[in-house]
Write a structure and sequence with these properties.
- By secondary structure, the chain is an alpha+beta fold.
- 22% of the residues lie in helices and 37% in strands.
- The chain has 6 helices and 22 strands.
């Protein structure tokens, strides 16, 4: 389950579970008490600081969720865990406070933040905040001494110089991702079998050119690259090279292939053949992808057999 999917599932029952089970704060969940209703400016500054620090810390890391209205306390193991419910009065006003200050709490402005009420009655309850990981990092916390923060374990820490340099360098890096497209089903050469074809596509979703791209793929053995390549003349989008220990099929772009931001490249066509009365297997891919000035990425793709059959259609 992704952070976004989990965020949608959080309700009053889930918040009560935090207390009952002693839910730990972790790399993606933070509990916060609030000083609202505001009786003086000091109360406001406390909540503004917490908002600013969390927006910076989660956005500069892998994203996360704040639950406002739950206090945390260290347990016997020294872990920060949910300790008590501290419901927020005048819940709508505090929601407005978060929305109003969000745009000033960090620079550059962070998009995609969501604040939602969990009202337990009489405008009293909790607020959950979703903070996405940002491609525009680093974000400075304007209400927290103008520092940059990141998330580690169950807390935020002030970034060192190398953290900030690393985030700036990532902004100008390529980002290669792998996609698939199911092609039209065809009759296999024997006449009583179906042939399913899946196109492997590379895309640069980053902000810099991708030079020296490299791709390595492993998949279930009922699937294999088409012997005749993409065009029937044994040509592929990148040069096929010798397999390595963990991947059966490898491709190297060398200095001949450069992907500009937003560009795509068809890499190869993978096929499987089954009897007409049978279903193909799910298509399971594990892959490694990299380029110059890009961190190597390991991911998986699973395509359900039902989707393959439906999308492939008839010849």
């Amino acid at each position: 389950m992704t952070i976004s999917e989990y965020f949608k599932s959080i309700d009053a029952t889930e918040i009560e579970r935090y207390i009952f089970e002693g839910q730990e704060e972790n790399v993606s969940i933070e509990f916060k008490t609030v000083n609202h209703p505001f009786y003086n400016d000091n109360n406001k500054e406390y909540d503004k600081k917490n908002l600013s620090e969390a927006l910076s810390g989660f956005a500069n890391s892998n994203g996360g969720i704040i639950i406002w209205g739950v206090s945390a306390k260290k347990n016997s193991k020294g872990q920060d865990v949910a300790h008590a419910l501290t419901p927020i009065d005048e819940l709508t006003k505090f929601l407005n406070f978060l929305n109003r200050n969000e745009g000033q709490a960090v620079i550059p402005i962070l998009t995609g933040v969501i604040h939602e009420k969990i009202d337990t009655g009489n405008d009293r309850g909790f607020i959950k905040t979703l903070i996405p990981s940002s491609e525009n990092a680093p974000h400075m916390a304007m209400y927290a001494k103008k520092h940059y923060y990141k998330r580690s374990g169950d807390s935020f820490y002030q970034c060192e110089h190398y953290d900030i340099v690393d985030m700036f360098s990532r902004k100008s890096s390529p980002k290669l991702e792998l996609f698939t497209k199911i092609l039209q089903r065809a009759n296999a050469y024997t006449g009583d079998r179906y042939r399913y074809e899946i196109l492997i596509i590379m895309r640069n979703t980053g902000k810099a050119m991708a030079k020296y791209p490299y791709l390595a793929i492993d998949c279930n053995h009922n699937y294999r690259p088409d012997d005749f390549g993409l065009d029937g003349n044994r040509n592929c989008g990148m040069l096929k090279v010798a397999k390595n220990d963990n991947f059966r099929f490898c491709y190297n772009g060398g200095n001949q292939i450069v992907l500009h931001p937003g560009a795509t490249l068809d890499i190869d066509k993978y096929i499987t053949e089954v009897n007409k009365s049978e279903f193909p297997e799910n298509f399971n891919i594990s892959y490694m992808i990299s380029a110059e000035n890009m961190e190597t990425v390991h991911k998986k793709i699973i395509i359900d057999a039902q989707n393959i059959v439906v999308e492939a259609g008839t010849p």
